[in-house]
Write a structure and sequence with these properties.
The chain has 201 residues and is an all-alpha fold. It has helices spanning 2-29, 34-70, 75-90, 99-120, 124-128, 130-165, 169-175. It comes from Aeromonas media.
Length: 201
């Protein structure tokens, strides 16, 4: 009789342990697919960033050709824009270490485009040209799309990185998705935290 009670008690304890383990596994398993889902969101967001940068790069040859028609002696500025566009096209971001190079190439292109817009100010006929105005509006719209795409990418990276560092995601990350590392994000340019100095002289 004593053995029977002991066996029943042992079965009861084993059943409770099994149920507790199953319950815990079930509760933590709820987030098991979060990591690959968030990883795909990061990839999709990055695809949108690249898409908008490509849109900007595609506008540049038409913009340069239009400016060249009015300001052919501004070869240095036009060449700087064309060269910056070529550098952007040569950087392929397939791993996180290349993100900094990609950002630097995009910054150079933005700087060259800014210089081009300064050149445009010297040519009133160009500023009134309908094709130029259309291209300028498309470029401004694309810059806004780039800002939105970058914001969405930064948010997707934040969600992914948070998931792989917090419970229960950290468990699934170490057990099943150890090949997925924290994703890099964009960072502000040096000096972006300081107000620009403006001089009207």
């Amino acid at each position: 009789m004593e053995n029977n009670k002991m066996a029943t008690s042992l079965r009861h304890w084993a059943t409770q342990c099994l149920l507790t383990f199953t319950l815990l596994l079930g509760l933590t398993g709820c987030g098991m697919n979060n990591i690959p889902t968030l990883d795909e969101q990061v990839k999709a967001s990055w695809g949108q960033v690249e898409n908008q940068y490509q849109r900007r790069a595609d506008l540049i040859p038409n913009l340069v050709a239009t400016v060249k028609g009015y300001a052919s002696h501004e070869q240095e500025t036009l060449k700087a824009v064309t060269d910056a566009r070529a550098r952007v096209g040569s950087v392929q971001v397939s791993d996180p270490s290349q993100l900094k190079a990609f950002e630097a190439a995009q910054d150079q292109l933005s700087s060259a485009l800014s210089r081009l817009m300064v050149v445009v100010e010297r040519y009133p006929d160009l500023k009134a040209d309908q094709q130029f105005l259309t291209l300028q509006a498309q470029l401004e719209g694309t810059e806004n799309r780039i800002a939105v795409a970058r914001r969405d990418y930064i948010e997707a990276v934040r969600q992914f990185n948070t998931e792989i560092r917090t419970f229960p995601g950290v468990i699934w990350s170490k057990l099943l998705y150890s090949d997925l590392e924290a994703k890099p994000s964009f960072s502000a340019k040096p000096g972006a935290d300081e107000a620009p100095k403006v001089s009207f002289q």
